[in-house]
From TrEMBL:
<feature type="transmembrane region" description="Helical">
    <location>
        <begin position="64"/>
        <end position="84"/>
    </location>
</feature>
<dbReference type="GO" id="GO:0046872">
    <property type="term" value="F:metal ion binding"/>
</dbReference>
<feature type="transmembrane region" description="Helical">
    <location>
        <begin position="167"/>
        <end position="191"/>
    </location>
</feature>
<keyword id="KW-0408">Iron</keyword>
<dbReference type="GO" id="GO:0016491">
    <property type="term" value="F:oxidoreductase activity"/>
</dbReference>
<dbReference type="InterPro" id="IPR003780">
    <property type="entry name" value="COX15/CtaA_fam"/>
</dbReference>
<keyword id="KW-0560">Oxidoreductase</keyword>
<keyword id="KW-1003">Cell membrane</keyword>
<dbReference type="InterPro" id="IPR050450">
    <property type="entry name" value="COX15/CtaA_HemeA_synthase"/>
</dbReference>
<keyword id="KW-0479">Metal-binding</keyword>
<keyword id="KW-0350">Heme biosynthesis</keyword>
<keyword id="KW-1133">Transmembrane helix</keyword>
<feature type="transmembrane region" description="Helical">
    <location>
        <begin position="12"/>
        <end position="30"/>
    </location>
</feature>
<keyword id="KW-0812">Transmembrane</keyword>
<feature type="transmembrane region" description="Helical">
    <location>
        <begin position="221"/>
        <end position="241"/>
    </location>
</feature>
<feature type="transmembrane region" description="Helical">
    <location>
        <begin position="253"/>
        <end position="276"/>
    </location>
</feature>
<feature type="transmembrane region" description="Helical">
    <location>
        <begin position="130"/>
        <end position="155"/>
    </location>
</feature>
Length: 323
């Protein structure tokens, strides 16, 4: 069943909210990469005990700006949810997606507050900080995924269904899980790069392989391995879903996923060789979010209620008569 498309204005607004949210996510990564997470101390939602810091340092300005932009992102998520309820009828998938987008925006704020209040910022190198970074990245993916589905559904596409999808559902589930593992390992690797910067590629390898290496360094080395293996899985899933659900939307999503992942892999290699400068970390994160959005789009197209299904032709009967 294809649902009616929302107004052009709502479609543009949903796209704008998604783009703005990506900008806030990148600024949050900039806060972490520059060690500015403690710019407002362990105070939340105020900054160093003040609503507006009077004599802010550069780190305070960076962290405070992130809080302001995050607050605006929350207001936009509320506006998106309210508008979705008015723009599309009850039962429309855009409504459900906007509700989840608001939910994950609120949990995003709570996770961010927890990181600040528990002091998992600046030079804190505890394993629990890595755990919270993984939770933060997972919630961010869920938020971006929900907003991507709002944009997708607002164009009037069919809802997703899991019943009767068989192999397609299993393979897309593997792609989602694989992307989650890859994202979390990337967040941990980025944290290791921030806390234990290397002076050269060889120095970085010595850090990772040392018997006395910090646990974050031991985890950091896993990310490139996951990137190659899970990247191959994503491309394979895209090809198989294209074969089993041969719709134009699935084909486009699969091609975008393949192209975006190749770009992400290339940027990852450059990031590694250049010893993870801040600018490359941000580009790497942006492409990771784009790959994730491609996976979400592939899921939406492959699991669409009206997606055509490949039906293998029965084997022709033998024309040779038994003796």
């Amino acid at each position: 069943m294809t649902h009616p498309a929302a107004s052009r204005r709502f479609q543009w607004f949903s796209q704008g909210v998604l783009v703005y949210t990506l900008g806030v996510i990148l600024w949050g990564a900039f806060v972490r990469a520059t060690g500015s997470g403690a710019g407002c101390g362990d105070h939340w939602p105020v900054c160093n005990g003040e609503v507006v810091p009077r004599a802010p340092t550069l780190q305070t300005l960076i962290e405070y700006t992130h809080r302001l932009t995050s607050g605006l992102a929350t207001l936009l998520a509320v506006a998106l949810y309210v508008w979705a309820r008015r723009a599309v009828p009850k039962g429309h998938p855009a409504r459900h997606a906007a509700g989840w987008a608001l939910f994950f925006m609120l949990t995003e704020g709570l996770v961010g507050a927890g990181i600040v209040l528990l002091k998992y910022v600046a030079q804190n190198a505890s394993l629990w900080r890595a755990v919270w970074m993984g939770v933060h990245l997972t919630n961010t993916f869920l938020l971006v995924g929900a907003q991507t589905l709002v944009v997708w559904a607002a164009a009037g596409r069919a809802r997703m269904v899991l019943k009767g999808q068989g192999t397609v559902a299993v393979m897309l589930g593997l792609a989602v899980a694989g992307m989650g593992v890859l994202g979390v390992s990337g967040a941990v690797a980025a944290l290791g790069d921030t806390l234990f910067p290397a002076t050269s590629l060889a120095d970085g390898l010595r850090q990772d392989m040392s018997e006395t290496a910090h646990v974050l360094l031991r985890l950091r080395v896993l990310h490139p391995v996951f990137a190659v293996g899970l990247g191959a899985l994503l491309v394979l899933v895209g090809r198989w879903v294209t074969r089993l659900r041969p719709s134009p939307e699935v084909k486009r999503a699969s091609m975008l996923l393949t192209g975006m992942y190749i770009a992400q892999l290339c940027v990852g290699i450059i990031n590694l060789v250049l010893l993870a400068p801040v600018a490359m970390q941000l580009i790497h994160l942006l492409l990771a979010d784009c790959v994730w959005m491609c996976v979400v789009r592939l899921c939406a197209a492959g699991l669409a209620e009206d997606a055509p299904r490949f039906e293998p032709s029965p084997a022709p009967a033998s024309s040779v008569e038994p003796v």
